[in-house]
Amino acid sequence: MKNNSRIIVSMAILSFLFITLSGCKKETGQKLEQRNYQLVWSDEFNGTVGESPDTTKWTFDIGVGPNNDGWGNAELEYYTSRPVNASIDSNANLAITARSELYSGSAFTSARIKTTGLFEQSYGRFEARIKAPWGPGIWPAFWLLGGDVGTIGWPQCGEIDIMEIRGQKPNIMNGTLHGPGYSGSGGITKSFAFENARFDVDFHLFAVEWGKDYIDFFVDKTLYQRITPDNVTGNWVFDHPFFIILNVAVGGNYVGFPTSQTPFPQTMLVDYVKVYKEVN
User: Which listed residue, of 6, 27, 30, 243, carries a Cα 20 to 30 Å from 121's Cα?
Assistant: First the structure.
C-alpha cells in the first residue's frame, strides 16, 4: 500500500506539472505549425575560393545609393563588387566584408548582393545560416524586398527584415516588417536575445515562413514572432514576389556611427541561403 500510495502521489504531481507547463506554453509561446516544404532555390557558396558569388544567382548594388543618401539610411559605406568585399572563403562560406578605407569619396567599403531579376518568390520559407559581424556602427542584414520596388517604390512594395543586428549589441537581433503606414522607425518589429551567447561567435539559422495571412519569424528552431494583417497599422502588402538581399552596412540611422572601439575589417559569413515553397 505504501508503494502504491507513492506511485499515486507521484503521478498526481507529474500530471499537475504537465498541465501547468502546458498552460504556460499555451499562454506565452507561439504555435508551431507543421508545414510541408519543397526546396526551390539555394546557394551553398561552393565556388572557388576568392571568387565573387555566382552571377547566375546574385547581382550587386554599387555605390552610396541612387540618391547619394546612404541608401536612404545615412549609411557611410560605398558598396562594391570587389572580391575583398564579397567572395567565397576557404570554408565554402560567402564572406561579406566591411572595411575601413577611403574609396570613391567614402570612408568605408562593403558589399550588398541581391537576387533582383534572377529569383523572386511570394510565400514559402526563406532561410540563411549566418555568423554575424560585430562592433558599434556595424549593421548586418538578411532581408526581402518587394519585386515591384522599381515601379511603385518603397515602402509600398513591402520589406521583410529576416535578420538585422546592431553590432554594438551582438546578442540581440530583430525581425521587422515595413509597409505603407508602418515604415522606417514605425516598422512592426520584435527582438530575439541570447542571455549567454552572441550572434558573432557561432552560426545561427534565421528564417521566415510566409503565407497569405501570416509571416512567422525564426531563430534556429525558435518561433519568436508572428505578424498577421491584424498587426500592421496600414495595408498588408505581402502578397506578391519578393527578392533576397544580403549586406553589411556601416553606420546609418539604425546603428549610429562606428567608433574607435569598432574593429575593422568586419565580416558576415553566410553558409547557405535556401528558399522553399509549401506543397500539399
Answer: 30
